[in-house]
Amino acid sequence: MKNGQRGSDPGAAAPGAAPRTWQAQALPDEGTGTAGRGGLRILILEDDPADAVLEQRLLTGAGLDFTAVVVDTAASYAQQIDAFRPDVILADFSLPGFSGEGAIKIAQERCPDTPLVVVSGTIGDEAAVELIRQGATDYILKDRPARLAPVIRRAVAEAEQRSRVARMQAHLQQAQRLESIGRLADGVAHELNNQVGAILSYAAFIRDQATGTLQRGTRLDLPGISRNAGQIEQAGQRVIKLVGQLREAGSRDVIRAELIDLNKVIGGIDELLRSTAGASTELRLCLSSRLWPVTAYPGQVEQILLNLTTNARDAMPDGGSFSIQTQNVTLGPGEAADLGLSSGSYVCLTARDSGTGMEPEVIEHAFEPFFTTKPFAEGGGLGLASVYGTTRQAGGTAAISSAPGTGTAVTVWLPAAIPGHPAGIPGQRSP
To answer: Fewer CB within 10 Å, N- or C-terminus of the chain?
Structure first.
């Protein structure tokens, strides 16, 4: 209706005036999602009052329960995003001195999780695709007003689903962290007992040497005492290092993503990984030199390593071998597509054990939260799900290769963060 005429409906604001509010009550049993729980908050960016009124009448007629605020300038739009906190935004594509692109940019900065629907009288498919690429949820042509209510319902439902998934992931990460601490306790306690036992044994040797010397009146075996004291010192240092790594893993801030060297993260918790694997497990580290850096949460990477080590230990109740390998890889289009990744450079981490292996039907569900083949009392169900979720969050993926009696290999791919080459170094192969 951009013909210069302005509507006078009380639900619309005059150009440049303060925002006006429209309230509509849903018809019985018509509201869904947020609307059905007390009304949607809809922010309408529109400089033609008649169009703003028409949009609200269409939504009322469709049975939506909502409160709408209409604005027509960039300043009032930004202000109402913060003050009104809308559930959905309807943004005109073209306003005097302001555009749909500008509206999307402000929304992405202030409320990136709020769906934004562009409304336009004339917009081509290419322009619409570009707006969606920039962050718009959908677009509606003004000559097809019947799409307005369905598009809003779908956009709000999808936003609510994303919010639920995000909350579930947050709960999953917290539960995984608590579970990891609990499952580590047994291995750490075992290692601490070993070291304290060594300290007590060598202290007893020194005492016996001193006692025997006093009783027999012989010369004190100073070299022997020195060796035993050295063993006590080494065991004490191992205890201090183990406790320090455990405290660091339990308290590290995992919210901050950093540019990290995966080899250094592995080396930093080497003792903790060995104590988690257990004395009957041979742990081998095969770390590639000149490993590319990755951008990730250090604490969560440590959790990936601890979960993989714990799973390997549980798969080898009588002991066995467990290896952690890192290497640089470059995935071509075909390889990347098979993994659900973009082609480019990645850092690959493979954890391989000589355990019992998995049946195909177990592999199929292994990354699902709470899936486990172990009794509940033994824990499990979150480790591999957390590995997969954390890896996907970092832009990578994870996969399992296993068969009964042949052991299991879990491989993780993380995007390489190579300075000057955000997408990796095309054509470079792993060493």
So the answer is: C
Instruction: For domain 167-415, give the CATH superfamily.
Output: Histidine kinase-like ATPase, C-terminal domain (3.30.565.10)
Distances (CA, A) of 180 to 190, 305, 392, 396: 16, 11, 19, 22
- Three-state DSSP class for 398? strand
pLDDT number for residue 250: 55
If DSSP states are collapsed to H, E and C, what string results for 7-30? CCCCCCCCCCCCCEEEEECCCCCC
Residues 301-350: tens digit of each pLDDT: 888 898 899 888 888 988 899 999 999 999 998 888 889 898 899 999 99
Which class is domain 20-143?
Answer: alpha beta
Q: Which residues of the chain have pLDDT under 70?
A: 1-38, 124, 173-191, 241-242, 244-256, 368-383, 419-431
- The H-assigned helical ranges of 217-331 are 222-251, 262-268, 270-277, 298-315
> How far is 41 from 35, CA to CA, in rounded Å?
9
Phi, psi of 259 (to 5 degrees): -85, 115
Residue 178 has a pLDDT of 63
Helices (H) and strands (E) in the chain, counts: 12, 15
- On whether the CB atoms of residues 68 and 42 are closer than 8 A, the answer is yes
For the chain, residues classed under CATH 3.30.565.10 are 167-415
d(CA 346, CA 412): 10
Cβ–Cβ under 8 Å, residues 396 and 341: yes
Ranges of CATH 3.40.50.2300 domains, the chain: 20-143
| pTM (predicted TM-score) | 0.46
In 3D space, the residue among 398, 399, 402 whose CA is nearest the CA of residue 359 turns out to be 402
Kindly report, residue by residue over 360-384, the tens digit of the pLDDT: 888 887 776 545 555 433 334 446 7
Cα-atom radius of gyration of the chain, to the nearest Å? 31
Q: What pLDDT was estimated at residue 426?
A: 34
CA dist 431 and 129 (Å) reads 41
Report angle CA 237, 239, 242 to the nearest 5 degrees.
Answer: 110
Give the end-to-end CA distance of the chain in Å, rounded to a whole number: 64
